[in-house]
Amino acid sequence: MYKFLNKKVVAACLAVGISGAYMANTAHAEVYTETQVLSDKQQWKFAGLLTSPKAAFWLNQGMSGNNGVASRVSSIEVVSFTFNKGAKEAVRSIVPIPFDKLGVISAYANVTFANGDKQGGILMVDNPGEKEKVKAYWVSAEKISGFLKAAEDLKTGGHPLPAYLHADFNDPEVQNCAAQSFLIRPVGPSDYPFQRWVRCTTPEQQEEIMDPKSLVPKRY
User: What are the strands of the beta sheet with 118-126, ordered from one edge?
Assistant: First the structure.
């Protein structure tokens, strides 16, 4: 299956942790939700914790420890606690701690930095109930999108997107949309390589994918 792939592409993908087995399962994986671990009420309560100034403080506190945060965080908005089936397994090589580690809360979120910039990504909080041990980590949509694109590059053998299609791989909103479409949104499988970025670059389709803005249950 992979004998005709560009050797440089294969090497680059293996360097970021993408295997042949991952490729076999990622590009056209079924997209439906895993069994929900948290009840609706628990999700709402955790959303209250992770959107509080306390969680922003945890992220900022960990910047010196290379926790993935590039700039000071001023606020957090949780998008979803529930991930598509197989999504966590697919990105396990780029997250700093295991999703299933005891005491870890993980969610897809949007952060606003002190300079006003916004960014999507995976927020992971370890030991939130223990003041002295709590640590927060951030995996940006830019990193997630880059990882997924590398997988598409591997699948296509390094061939670029056809000229008749357009995708802005460097736009933060497109990266956020692409990451969400793979991790948490019920978008379905792709019909051709780089389709998620093509759709996310088209304003109308991006809006459709990202609606509703938050998937967290309403307050009780």
Answer: 73-80, 104-113, 118-126, 135-140
Q: Averaged over 22-45, what is the pLDDT?
A: 56
Radius of gyration, alpha carbons of the chain: 17
The rounded distance, in Å, linking the Cα atoms of 126 and 135 is 5
In three-state secondary structure terms, 2 is coil
Output the six-digit token pair for 190. Answer: 């792709």
Q: Are 26 and 93 in contact (CB under 8 A)?
A: no
Neighbours of 117 (CB within 10 A): 11
Query: Is residue 140 within a helix (H) or strand (E), and if so which, with residue range?
Result: strand 135-140
Q: How many residues does the chain have?
A: 220
End-to-end CA distance of the chain: 51
- DSSP strands (E only) in 2-117: 73-80, 104-113
> What is the distance between the alpha carbons of residues 16 and 21, in angstroms, rounded to a whole number?
14
Between the CA of residue 13 and those of 34, 153, 207, what are the distances in Å?
27, 8, 30
Q: Residue 6: which of 155, 194, 162, 161 has the closest Cα?
A: 155
Long-range CB contacts (within 8 A, 24+) of 32-35? 32/84, 32/85, 32/186, 33/82, 33/83, 33/84, 33/85, 33/186, 34/82, 34/83, 34/84, 34/85, 34/88
More confident residue, 156 or 122: 122
By C-alpha distance, which of 80, 88, 136, 90 is closest to 110? 80
Provide the pLDDT for residue 220. 56
